[in-house]
Structure formats: C-alpha cells, structure tokens
Design a protein that fits this description.
Four Helix Bundle (Hemerythrin (Met), subunit A), globular, about 70% helix, mainly alpha, 6 helices
C-alpha cells in the first residue's frame, strides 16, 4: 500500500478522534491531500506549467476531479484553521471535512489500478 495512503489513514483516524474543531478540519484536509498525492504519484509526470497536487490528481483520475477540485477550493480555509483563526471552521464544517475526506479516500481506493486497489 502506498505510504501516502497509510499517512492518509493515520491522519483520518486522528481527525475522527480530535475534539478541537480547527485541528479536526486540518487533519481531515491533510488526509485528503495525502490521498491526492498517492493518486498524482501514480500518474504520468506533469508537463509544462506547474500544477497543484489537486490538479494532478484530477488529471490522473478524472472520476475524482470534482472531489479533488473541491478540496483545492478549501485550501485557504485549511490555512486559516492551521493559523488557529477562531472563525476558520465551525464544528459542522470540521465534521463535513472528515466525511469528505473519508469519501475521497474510499474513492481513491475503489478504482481498479488505483494506488491501493488489490491486484487482479
């Protein structure tokens, strides 16, 4: 299994157990970032312009594009939560981020040929 996916699993487990809403948001978002990194690493090397890991994951696995780009759009909110800004993320938003990361990680694992899909 990809080291990136192992890290994503660990971070997601930490996020589920975390009581602090800001830290829960950061941990869940970071778990999704590691999962996206696993996807991007499985794809071809980028050509030309610089791309984010979210863009690379979306290009490598178009079935994950909507989710990956959704996480990209929440990057500033993650940064605000990391900076401990009080209104960066509500408890509901942190819980939503945990669920989104769980769904994303399951989707990453679910496709044949994905970084952690069982070999046939």
């Amino acid at each position: 299994m990809s080291q990136h996916l192992l890290a994503a699993d660990r971070l997601l487990a930490e996020a589920r157990a975390e009581e602090d809403r800001l830290q829960r948001y950061v941990l869940a978002h970071t778990a999704a970032l590691y999962a996206a990194t696993a996807v991007a690493a499985a794809g071809p090397p980028p050509e030309g312009e610089h791309a984010t890991v979210w863009q690379l994951a979306a290009a490598t696995r178009p079935d994950l594009a909507d989710q990956a780009l959704g996480f990209a759009q929440t990057g500033a909110q993650r940064s605000a939560a990391e900076a401990r800004l009080p209104n960066a993320a509500s408890s509901a938003e942190a819980d939503d981020m945990v669920r989104a990361a769980e769904t994303f990680l399951a989707a990453v694992r679910g496709a044949p040929g994905s970084p952690a899909a069982p070999a046939s």
